[in-house]
Write a structure and sequence with these properties.
Blueprint: E1 5-8, H1 12-23, E2 29-31, E3 46-47, E4 52-53, H2 54-64, E5 69-71, E6 76-81, E7 86-90, E8 95-98, E9 100-103, E10 107-109, E11 126-128, H3 129-138, E12 151-158, H4 174-188, E13 193-198, H5 208-217, E14 222-225, E15 228-233, E16 239-245, E17 250-256, E18 258-263, E19 265-267, H6 269-278, E20 305-307, H7 317-337
Parallel strand pairs: 1-2, 1-9, 2-5, 9-20, 11-18, 12-13, 12-18, 13-14
Antiparallel strand pairs: 3-4, 6-7, 7-8, 10-19, 15-16, 16-17
Helix pairs in contact: 1-2, 1-7, 4-5
């Protein structure tokens, strides 16, 4: 069908929406600023709770979306509002006239160096969840010493549920990601002690609770309820973590070979940039504001502009894919009514 449908972002939301639109007879246009498709999931190793290889999910989506018009290494320079459509100028000099845009600009990972008390960027043995996934995929990170991994710690809610960090929202996937990564590290280093420091465990998804129970029962991972109060480094370069176990009421002090910070989700700069160009509002959590947070999460307040995925808030992979499918159908119905 001859209708320009512009998808801003080539992560899993943009790819899944493109696949559905192709099946409906359209030829969508994907605008992706990086040199590859798949977004954050392309950088992940395995996905919870079934340890599904992330690469398999991304490869399948890229293959199915291959017939879309895809622009890599391309950004939106500016957007002009016409009478009943938009003129989008791309950084490669191409201009697109469209009346339909799907924003799938995703999220950014919280900058853990802003939480100075945890020592990210200061102490060598402090990394983030994203860094650890990179190591799972490549084995390349000088901070992870394969030959000396006797104790590993995970800190939940880094940059989430934190008024000082200006992020009061829960990032939704950090708890289960910590469980997944803790299990993976225990599988790689069976003799290592693994600790998870948490405020609350939010195991809301399908099989998440089973995954958490397995982490304790089958892998001996120790979950300590209490916020980490201090991180320092000893003379040997190991990380010293102090916290309070609020269940026992006792202070905890452990020396670790690696500390992993579970950095949460924040609104991406790409989302903010698009919002400013098209005059889309942001919600109180800093993400793009939907027409309604219950029934119309994929609708923007502006006609012809739709959302899918983590541009409107933290989402799991299944939620992101479901929203992308819903958005594609919504766009089809919108076109049919015009």
């Amino acid at each position: 069908m001859k209708e320009n449908i512009v998808i801003i972002g080539g992560g899993i939301a943009g790819l899944e929406a493109a696949c559905q639109l192709l099946d409906l007879g359209y030829k969508p246009i994907i605008i992706e600023k990086s040199d590859h498709l798949g977004g954050h999931v392309a950088d992940w190793n395995c996905l919870f709770p079934d340890m599904t290889p992330a690469g398999d999910i991304v490869s399948a989506l890229i293959s199915k979306a291959a017939d879309a018009n895809i622009f890599l290494n391309t950004e939106i320079s500016f957007v002009n509002k016409l009478q009943d459509s938009y003129n989008i100028m791309l950084s490669n000099g191409i201009s697109i006239i469209t009346r339909i845009m799907l924003v799938t600009t995703g999220f950014s990972v919280f900058d853990a160096s802003k939480k100075e008390e945890y020592g990210y960027g200061v102490y060598d043995q402090v990394i983030t969840n994203k860094d650890l996934e990179h190591w799972f995929n490549t084995g390349d990170d000088r901070r992870v010493n394969d030959s000396a991994m006797n104790a590993i710690g995970f800190v939940h809610c880094v940059g989430s549920r934190d008024e000082k960090a200006r992020n009061s929202q829960c990032s939704k996937v950090c708890c289960i990601t910590a469980v997944k990564q803790a299990i993976e590290m225990k599988q790689k280093f069976p003799e290592a002690m693994v600790y998870c420091f948490y405020m609350d465990l939010r195991m809301f998804g399908k099989k998440y609770e089973d995954f958490y129970i397995s982490a304790q029962r089958d892998y001996g991972i120790r979950f300590i309820r209490g916020r980490v109060s201090e991180v320092s480094e000893n003379i040997d370069g190991r990380v010293i973590v102090k916290a309070e176990d609020t269940l026992s009421g006792k202070p905890v002090k452990v020396t670790l070979d690696l500390l992993v910070l579970m950095a949460g989700m924040v609104c991406s700069q790409d989302s903010t940039k698009v919002a400013n160009m098209i005059k889309l509002p942001l919600d109180s959590d800093g993400f793009l504001k939907s027409a309604d947070n219950v029934a119309d999460i994929i609708d923007s307040p502006k006609e012809g502009i739709f959302y899918a995925g983590a541009c409107t808030g933290p989402k799991t992979v299944p939620e992101t894919l479901a929203e992308a499918r819903a958005a594609a159908l919504k766009i089809h119905l919108y076109i049919m009514k015009k």
